[in-house]
Amino acid sequence: MSPESFAQVSNLLIPTATVIYALAMVSHAIEWAVGRAAVAKTVPAEQEAKAESLVAAGAASSVDAAAASSGSAGSVSSTGSSSSAASSERMDAASRIGLLLTWLGFVLHLGGVVTRGLAAERVPWGNMYEFSITASLAVSIVYLVFVQRYKLQWLGLGVTLIVAGVLGLASLALYTPAGPLVPALHSYWLVIHVSAAAISGGAFTVGGLISVLYLVKARAERRVLSGGTMSAAVRRLPSAEAMDGTAYKVLAFAFPLWTFGVLVAGPIWAEYAWGRYWGWDPKEVWSLVTWVVYAAYLHARATAGWRGRRAATIAIVGWFVFIFNFVGVNLIVSGLHSYAGV
Question: Which residues are in the Cytochrome c assembly protein domain (predicted)?
């Protein structure tokens, strides 16, 4: 096939993958909606059962009244249990469909990135469009790998929302026809630097999403301890403690990769391209800021024993700093890295 043919295939696969990811997102949204609806239906039943048990206790002198109340409560409990089981089955089905669609979207996405590289006859991350489709592919890869290892299906809604959004934005606003690299990019350090940044960025995104859901779960657990209820969708999440540990593992994996790829390989490449290792270019500054935030996260956990909400807050701040470094610096701030823009 000619480069033009590969470009056409890539231009077809990327939008198709975007649609598939969007369908996966809808499936996971249904999963969460069913979970919320399930609780909305069962809470009144729980309250009714409690009320009837109090009536039964107050009528202890009447065996018939107590038996009637017990039978009514048993009927409510049976009805609630049956409804909960049916809702759980629907949630499981929506989760499986969402994960299968994510796998399909990933295959198409991977094909789109590979054919883009074949069309350009180089690695496909020479401009903002290419880095966007590659970085979002890294998010999918990290998510699917950790799904197999840590059963992170519950993260599907956030992941598919982000990936579909990035691909849609790339296709509509950032698209650039395949072409040769800017001369400064001609180096094998391009492969090392950008691939490490993309993979670690994908891990930062997954870790940030886990941290957001950690806060949701921790709040729900506190509400339950105060006598409140927890939605079926949130109940399906792992415990807050387990989510805190998973976020730490993901970010501990990403941090040394970011350190090597961005703060070691990047300066070496800069010396090759511009004759200096470090020049306080805006991209360099914000890459360093990103590193400092995640270094603070890991240091606080290791030395000060920070866990839970404080650690999750730092992780979320780090993710927003990374997003600004990825989007804001490239598209808003002028600097030597401006070639990475549109």
Answer: 125-337
